[in-house]
């Protein structure tokens, strides 16, 4: 492996991040780094802590411990600069169903302070790219689930972010919509040098050219390019590596738990 | 971020609120019909029960419907504030609140913009009500339609800010019915909206003081005096102070480090 160039500022840098809701520890000492152009899959089962991680990175609330920086801007100290560089597709659908596609996107553009003319231009461009330009004046309620997701992706990109975060973006989509979304986002990584964090519980969304972060019960079990993670676990595929890592983790946890009691 | 960026953001938030209000027909319709129904029912019901003597700002004996009009204006704004509070809680449950909160603008500004947007909607509703009420022979002096505007804005801000506070402290949508019972109804009935306070004083001194301490009373009185071109300084002060207090609480409630979002996990998992 060639060492990653450390000169460039990481698009997203998370270190020593822990968070608890009351007695439940949602994240334990999580750390990773995304370079521009990286397509990184955050892989974990439901409840692994992916959504908590997203909430902390997007500053919905602050962590108790740890540091998050977006292109060098600390999320606590320079939230405005950090959030301006970030586009987010949340797990739950977040469009106004009674408004048209364009009205939804225009609202988002205004939340980033875009001028009317710039917003119109960017909305057209992004809708064109996701193949929904002719639906611009359709109310979101009349769109299919796959189309709504594409609108949400277009919305996340209207202000030209250099870091794109997607939390379980393919949940509930059919195969074709899923394929479209993955291809489109991977194309963005290459063509715009965009850093992408793609959270999912579907292992096949991380192919061999992706990087992966395996998150389990709030802890990062391993991370790196998919073939390396598999090789380290001593198995041929990521699926097998995931099983191995989570079983090992379960073993140590039970062992520790037993010793503590 | 320069002032022009802030202005664009504010414009976008107000526009969305206005679009949502007009495009949700049911909400639009009920917002207009509710006060008229109340006007019809209360005016008919209390008309003969309550004789209203000459009290400021009125200069003559007035029919009961004229007395309750300012209270109903304040009620429109109270409901509007609670409606936007409900939609904030709903947005948070559904996740669409997140799209607002990940905007790079400071959170206090986003909340204030949200508040101003809801005030714009509530002031428009208040004027539509006044237009219809004119046919009910609720006809304040022509200048009153102008002088009532700042009062409507100020009371709209207070009740909208109250809505924001509640939305930040209500944990789940299901709890909203409780808020209706414990906020809207006591606030409305223990106030000068439906009956003059001297009447209340005759029956219960305790209730009288509760009414006096109720900021909704002062919103009502502020609107009542303004509608007749007069100033109610005490009420204006109370309403302004309460607005400030509620706004501080709301910003605190939505603070990423302390408030409710962190305690309940932000509706995530």
Automatic annotation (TrEMBL), chain B:
It is found in: Cell inner membrane; Membrane. Keywords: Cell membrane, Membrane, Transmembrane, Transmembrane helix, Transport. It comes from the Bacteria. The chain crosses the membrane at residues 36-55, 67-90, 111-136, 142-166, 178-198, 234-254. GO terms for cellular component: ATP-binding cassette (ABC) transporter complex. Residues 26-257 form the ABC transmembrane type-2 domain. It is a multi-pass membrane protein. One of its GO terms (molecular function) is ABC-type transporter activity. InterPro entries: ABC2_TM (IPR013525), ABC2_TM_bact-type (IPR047817), ABC_2_transport (IPR000412), Alc_ABC_transptr_permease (IPR022403), T7SS_ABC-Transporter (IPR051328). PANTHER family: TRANSPORT PERMEASE PROTEIN, TRANSPORT PERMEASE YVFS-RELATED. Belongs to the ABC-2 integral membrane protein family. This is Transport permease protein. It comes from Nitrospirillum viridazoti CBAmc.
């Amino acid at each position: 492996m060639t060492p990653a160039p450390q000169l460039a500022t990481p698009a997203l840098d998370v270190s020593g991040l822990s968070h608890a809701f009351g007695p439940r520890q949602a994240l334990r000492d999580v750390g990773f780094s995304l370079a521009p152009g990286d397509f990184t899959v955050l892989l974990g089962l439901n409840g692994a802590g992916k959504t908590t991680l997203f909430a902390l990175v997007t500053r919905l609330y602050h962590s108790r411990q740890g540091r998050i920086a977006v292109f060098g801007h600390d999320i606590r100290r320079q939230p405005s600069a950090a959030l301006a560089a970030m586009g987010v597709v949340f797990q739950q659908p977040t469009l106004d169903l009674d408004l048209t596609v364009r009205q939804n996107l225009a609202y988002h553009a205004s939340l980033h302070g875009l001028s009317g003319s710039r917003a119109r231009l960017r909305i057209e461009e992004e809708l064109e790219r996701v193949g929904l330009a002719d639906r611009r004046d359709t109310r979101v309620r009349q769109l299919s689930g796959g189309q709504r997701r594409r609108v949400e992706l277009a919305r996340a990109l209207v202000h030209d972010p250099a870091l794109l975060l997607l939390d379980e973006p393919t949940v509930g989509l059919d195969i074709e919509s899923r394929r479209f979304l993955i291809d489109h986002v991977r194309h963005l990584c290459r063509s715009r040098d965009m850093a992408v964090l793609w959270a999912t519980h579907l292992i096949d969304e991380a192919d061999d050219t992706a990087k992966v972060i395996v998150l389990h019960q709030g802890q990062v079990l391993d991370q790196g390019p998919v073939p390396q993670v598999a090789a380290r676990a001593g198995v041929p595929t990521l699926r097998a590596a995931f099983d191995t890592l989570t079983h090992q983790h379960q073993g140590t946890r039970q062992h520790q738990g037993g010793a503590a009691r | 971020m320069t002032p022009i960026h802030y202005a664009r953001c504010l414009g976008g938030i107000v526009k969305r609120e206005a679009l949502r209000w007009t495009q949700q027909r049911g909400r639009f319709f009920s917002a207009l019909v509710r006060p008229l129904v109340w006007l019809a029912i209360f005016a008919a019901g209390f008309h003969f029960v309550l004789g209203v003597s000459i009290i400021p700002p009125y200069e003559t004996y007035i029919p009961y419907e004229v007395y309750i009009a300012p209270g109903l204006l304040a009620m429109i704004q109270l409901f509007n504030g609670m409606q936007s509070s409900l939609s904030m809680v709903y947005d948070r449950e559904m996740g669409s609140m997140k799209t607002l909160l990940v905007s790079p603008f400071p959170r206090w500004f986003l909340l204030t913009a949200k508040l101003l947007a809801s005030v714009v909607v509530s002031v428009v509703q208040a004027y539509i009500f006044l237009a219809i009420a004119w046919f009910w022979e609720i006809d304040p002096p022509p200048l009153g339609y102008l002088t009532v505007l700042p009062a409507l804005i100020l009371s709209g801000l207070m009740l909208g800010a109250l809505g924001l506070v509640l939305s930040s402290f209500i944990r789940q949508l299901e709890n909203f019915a409780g808020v209706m019972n414990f906020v809207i109804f006591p606030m409305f009935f223990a106030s000068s909206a439906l009956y003059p306070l001297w009447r209340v004083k005759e029956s219960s001194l305790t209730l009288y003081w509760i009414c006096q301490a109720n900021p909704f009373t002062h919103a009502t009185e502020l609107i009542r005096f303004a509608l007749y071109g007069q100033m109610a300084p005490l009420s204006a002060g109370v309403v302004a102070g309460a607005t400030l207090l509620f706004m501080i609480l709301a910003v605190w409630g939505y603070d990423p480090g302390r408030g409710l979002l962190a305690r309940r996990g932000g509706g995530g998992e």
